[in-house]
Amino acid sequence: MRRLALIAILVSQAEAAEWVRIATSAFEVYTDAGEETAREALSQIERIHSAFAPMRSRDLPLPARIIVFSSRSEFERTRPSSTAEAFFQSGPERDYIVAHRSVSGNYRVLRHEYVHLALSHSSSRLPLWFEEGTAEFYSTIDISGTRLRIGEPIPDHIRKLQSAGLLEAAVFAAVDRGSPWYSDRDKAGLFYAQCWALVHMMNLAPGYRGRMPVFADKLAAGDPPAQAFHEAFGKNLAAALADAAYYLRRPFRVAHVAWEPSQHEIQAQVERIGRTEAALVIGELLIYSGKPELAEEIYARVEKDGTGSPESVAGSAMIALRRGSTREAMRQFERAIALGSRQASVFFEYAMLLRDSRAEAERYRPLLEQAIAIQPSLAEAQFILGLEYSREGNEEKAVEHYRKAAEILPRQANFWHALALSYHKLGQRELALRCARRTLQAARNPAEMEMAEAAIRLTSNQQVEPERRSGVATPGSWQSSTGDSAIVGQLVRVDCEESEARLHLKTSAGDFILRATRNTRGDVRQLECGVQKPLNVSVGYDAATKEIRRIVFR
Ligand SMILES: [Zn+2]
Fold first, then answer.
1. Which pLDDT belongs to residue 163?
2. 50, 150 in Cβ contact below 8 A?
3. 482 CA to middle of ligand 1, Å?
4. What spacing in Å lies between the alpha carbon of 474 and ligand 1's midpoint?
5. Which of 239, 123, 250, 86 is nearest to 173 (CA)?
6. What residue spans define the domains of the chain?
7. Cβ atoms of residues 21 and 59 within 8 Å
8. Do domains 308-374 and 378-469 have the same CATH topology?
9. What is the mean pLDDT of each successive set of 10 residues along the chain, which is 554 residues long?
10. What CATH topology corresponds to 472-553?
11. Is 48 in contact with 118 (CB distance < 8 Å)?
12. From ligand 1's centre to the CA of 2, what distance in Å?
């Protein structure tokens, strides 16, 4: 009951409040907190975008939507974690920054989230301390006359560091998203303060600031962070932290950047938004921020109003897809297309469902092409088209598409991996190895790391290995147990998940689904995720856990 009541509040607030929208070419702001908030949020985001320009390797490839809720409780229902005061969320067709009016007062959190958004498109995965420190450093930009001031001190951070002291270099560098120094509110305060102080020094202190571009270049080239740091600054992190402790006691410098509002911003007009559009904007956000049950309620209400718009039908399709109701999702995607949908992800997801159901390529390829015709920055669609060309043996075309995908989302390990393999097949050894290194840098879990290491071994090896396709790597052949059961059959499909893959096998004894994990050993073979051209295999596995111990392709 409680959840239903919450949903009802969210739906009714989305419908009752007056929503407005204001947009420039790169950003759009939606808010129910009034015209002034809309203008101010847009202006703030344009300022940070301009101040951060030298740090971006490219323009933002996707439009960014900023949503500012007037009510804190409404914001809290959309946020992905219980401590976030604002958040950045990426979606296939656009990025989101979401905040509420009470924190947007000084707009520091909004600017902090913008930095995460911009970095997600322009850099490899960065050490956590460097990414958060950069976001904190740029979060304080302020205007003086026609110039932006960058690097204002944050008194709260300075106080914390002066009373608690700095974390040791080894502890500090090892903080990741699972660490209490990141997720525990009290501890995180100190970690953020230290990230900020160090990055402030690296950007503005004499002896450091001139070397910052070298550090950034080395990170971009895939050098390990500790090595990049040492080579750029001529000292290790521990020595730099000792400098930072001294730096904190000195007067703070700030930097100035010339700025004036763009014509786009000056001419931008606030427009009122109907309740259906507002509901759809929030519904779409909820799908991508992992709250499909809340989104479902919103779409159900919109549908009940009888609008039957392609957007609301597409929303229902996305929810069905996330629930695993493939038939329902296909039916709704077809409906959305018939209603005239111009959403690239509708064409893409529908194409993927057809492809997974082993439809002929002639049926889903045009849909993929249409998806990128509507939205060339739909990275997943570029990637899948790459796989299609690679399957046909057209590696040049595959590389074109993989490169676009990796440019849009440079933190996706599987994009770099596919690119590495295609370059390898084309005999471009140096590029192949570079992309294999980027795969490792982007890897987020043991399976991706193993895939990256296999690619590095392959691309740094002179001998050319047999035909391989991109996707999940089944690891190399070490001696190991072969499990307590064995089957011989055909591998027909691979479902790729976070840290393992599920292999669907057809045998004379029936169908099996077994898990390929880190413990799986056997032939080295790169498998594309999804439906396979049937491959003959013999498999040793543990009956209790369904874990594959050994796989041999025959
Ligand atoms: Zn952050």
1. 92
2. no
3. 45
4. 35
5. 239
6. 1-152+254-299, 153-192+207-253, 308-374, 378-469, 472-553
7. no
8. yes
9. 47 66 95 94 91 83 95 90 88 95 81 95 90 96 86 94 93 91 87 97 95 88 87 96 94 87 86 91 92 88 77 90 92 95 96 94 96 96 96 96 96 96 95 93 90 92 47 38 66 71 71 75 65 73 72 72
10. OB fold (Dihydrolipoamide Acetyltransferase, E2P) (2.40.50)
11. no
12. 31
CA-CA distances (angstroms) from residue 74 to 71, 91, 282, 286?
5, 20, 11, 12
**DSSP assignments along 352-384, one per residue:** HHHHHTT--HHHHHHHHHHHHHH-TT-HHHHHH
Alpha carbon of 466 to ligand 1 centroid (Å): 44
Report the separation in Å between the CA atom of 301 and the middle of ligand 1, taken as the mean of its atom positions. Answer: 34
Cα–Cα distance for residue pair 240/168, rounded to 1 Å = 11
Q: Which token pair is 219?
A: 């990170």
Q: Give me the residue label for tokens 């064995």.
A: 486
- Residue 106 has a pLDDT of 75
* Cα 81 to middle of ligand 1, angstroms: 13
Query: How remote is the CA of residue 195 from the centroid of ligand 1, in Å?
Result: 11
CA of residue 113 to ligand 1 center, whole Å: 6
Which pLDDT belongs to residue 275?
A: 87
Q: Give the environment of ion ligand 1: residues with CB less than 5 A.
A: 132, 135
* 63 closest CA partner among 40, 98, 29, 93: 93
| Cβ atoms of 262 and 24 closer than 8 Å | yes
Q: How far is the CA of 136 from the centre of ligand 1 (A)?
A: 8
Expressed in angstroms and rounded, the spacing between residue 309 Cα and the centre of ligand 1 is 36
Amino acid 453: pLDDT: 92
- Count of alpha carbons within 13 Å of 136, Cβ hemisphere only? 26
Ligand 1 center from residue 114 Cα (angstroms): 9
Write out 12-53 in H/E/C secondary structure.
Answer: HHHHHCCEEEEECCCEEEEECCCHHHHHHHHHHHHHHHHHCH
Task: Provide the pLDDT for residue 108.
Answer: 92
Dihedral over Cα of 135, 138, 142, 146: its sign: negative
CA atoms 486, 488, 489, 493: torsion sign = positive
Does domain 308-374 fall into CATH 1.10.3720.10?
A: no
